[in-house]
Amino acid sequence: MTTPTENTALELRSLVKASGELELSLAPVPVPTPAENEVLVRIEASPINPSDIGLLFGAADMSSAVFSRNASGPVVTAPIPERSMKSMAARLDQSLPVGNEGAGTVVAAGASPAAQALMGKTVAVLAGAMYAQYRCVPADQCLPLPPGATAAQGASAFVNPLTALGMVETMRNEGHKALVHTAAASNLGQMLNRICIKDGIGLVNIVRSQQQADLLRGMGARYVVDSTADNFMQELTDALVATGATIAFDAIGGGRLAGQILSGMEAAANRTAKEYSRYGSTTFKQVYIYGGLDTRPTEIVRDFGMTWSMGGWLLFPFLQKAGPEVAARLKQRVAAELTTTFASHYTKEVSLSEALGADAVAAYGRRSTGEKYLINPSRG
Known about the structure:
About 30% of the residues lie in helices and about 30% in strands. The strands form four sheets. Strands 3, 7, 8, 9, 10, 19 and 20 form a seven-stranded mixed beta sheet that branches. Strands 13-12-11-14-16-18 form a six-stranded parallel beta sheet, with helices on both faces. Strands 4-5-2-1-6 form a five-stranded antiparallel beta sheet. The longest helix has 15 residues, at about 160-175. The two termini are about 25 Å apart. It is built from twelve helices and 20 strands. The chain has about 375 residues and is an alpha/beta fold. α4 packs across α5, α4 (about 160-175) crosses α10 (about 325-335) and α7 crosses α8.
């Protein structure tokens, strides 16, 4: 077993203080020594996903953030509105590591054959605390990348790919034949589009601009509708009739969109209904909210009958329910199609220190489609 020459390394931390303030900083932590079945990974790429931003910023008002420095590097502080402190109660005064997933090189390994087999390899890891220069994890939590694949290519090998595959798996398990996805021009949306094209699944892509619509159509998407267009509901209903989609996954969350999708599904079902029912169509309609790009309350106008459901959907509960065999099958597909179906694209790569700079925080904090940042903790 070889070990890094450093005794300590840096890790990005998020702290919500009981005084009502968020603090982001870089904390020096000991470089761990792997146990028998563990490996030490030098993290070289870790994406900033929306789920990471939720833990990173909490309920803070980042428009009022203050940027300073301490002995370990940059420090960001921001006030948390008093009305939002209740939602932060479970994490008060706890310095939490951030970063769901990432990839890097195995630089040390325990004595077990499984750990030793990963020595020197580039692996992807879904283990939390990935905004760190080193991460010690069980060998069986590592996904060896295909020969020639870089850490940047494998950095997003878990959350977005497994979420997209999980949506398709959920669609099939619940008896639907096609699906709807919002914020569809995102990295995740582009993956889902490629999956559906490859697997012959009907997909209705909902975007928020003509530019995003053009992007997806250029990637072969057949049904793309712009929620900001005057004829949005007409085009949505037409696409729902054409595909037969009766299940949707909504990354927006707030506002009227989730309810509009149910209304469109009802209108699509009624176009082919053979008789009138005072209770609405008998076609079951499902919307799962899996994100919160719009933090406003979710608004619905109940004009879609009584055969419908709206709920939440998250990757990790899905994987737990699906079981280890399904999870392994999905991960194998990700590894096999890492640089094609599941390729990710990033706006900018930053170091740990640069990730806490004012410009970077403002950019990835917008959560805008096409502005995905990648942290390289080993840089600088």
